[in-house]
Design a protein that fits this description.
This protein is largely without helices or strands. The chain is 11% helix and 9% strand. The chain has a two-stranded antiparallel sheet with strand order 1-2.
Length: 65
């Protein structure tokens, strides 16, 4: 079984993991309402995807509780 001969230093470990950070999501405007949505996903505001309604949006209550 392979075993490392020396302990991996923190600098070497952190340098190796420097590219593992998450990037910002790519957002595009919805064709129907203009809300920014992630690509290839349904708009949560109006329910549109690929120029048609996939899910009817829920009615929003305007009461502030």
């Amino acid at each position: 079984m392979a075993v490392p001969k020396r302990k991996t230093s923190l600098q070497r470990k952190r340098s190796r993991r420097a590219h593992h950070a998450l990037g910002r999501p790519h957002l595009v405007p919805c064709k129907n309402c203009g809300t920014f949505v992630r690509s290839h996903r349904m708009c949560p505001e109006c329910g549109w995807y690929k120029d048609r309604v996939v899910i009817a949006p829920k009615a929003r209550s305007s009461s502030a509780d």
